[in-house]
Amino acid sequence: MTTKSFAPLAFSVLDLAPIAADTTPTDTFRHSLDLAQQVESLGYTRFWLSEHHNMVSVASAAPVVLIGYIAGGTSTLRVGSGGIMLPNHTPLVVAEQMGTLASLYPGRIDLGLGRAPGSDQVTAQAIRGGRFGGVQDFPRDIQQLQTYFSAANSTATVRAIPGEGLDIPIYVLGSSTDSAYLAAALGLPYAFASHFAPGQLFAALEIYRQNFRPSAALAAPYVIACVNVVAADTDAEAQRLATSLKQFMLGVIKGRPAPLQPPVESMAGLWEPAQQYAVEQMLAYAFIGSKAAIQRDMQEFVGETQVNEIMAVSNIFSHEARVYSYRLLAEVLRGIPQPQTEQLVG
Question: Which Gene3D superfamilies match (predicted)?
């Protein structure tokens, strides 16, 4: 009789650097650093920062700068991008920037890559200029990055200094099945954005696992699921705190994003039925409740998806309540195992 071995489920943070009402980006960054320091002590694996542009509700327009800020204020936490929107940048510049960070903070830097603009199309045009077709180049650009990071590129005419020969894990981010095929073909770990695009989660995971090709970076599929989490002492308090998240999503749906708003007692009167339905669809994998409720729902989710890692985003208005939510989540996830898999090489 054989027994299956298990490893603890990894758990991490995605920080969208939300700007709360009546605060500034300076406040946001200060809170991000404090959050990173707190979750480091709680056993979180990594702390990723997103790339968004032209949004009054989000301060993460320059994730590379923020990665350095967070890494410099922590000591063991892995810090990275969730993600850098590669079509907005040239592979060489990304390689040099991340190579600089990895030289400053060796063994602690992750590079998550996405193909979306992280903004509206007009803003994307302003960012990309003549490279507006960069989305189609996404697979090639990832491979170019891998080349710049390789020691074998030392004889090339164009080199990434620093960056060359450094161990900087690359993750493919996605919210559709297209990214699943790409991550599988390249043999790279895959992070799915189920915190805002839950509809294709299971289809994407099946595609990724069935088509995965082992690579020098990864021997077996590795999946990160990003989900919304709002945890509190009671279900009622968590639901109240979650109204800030729902207002945030409502602004996205209406095309009028606004700074993160304080919680309200009820969403009634703030949205129409169709808008409520759209928000609830986006929040299909939002874990909202007490510690007991989060544990029950998270165990079911992990059992169904068989993910290797949970990456939580918690858009909670109060910084103290946000930190406490991550504390409760850590207590839950420490007790949930994952099926034993091969880990990242390096």
Answer: Luciferase-like domain
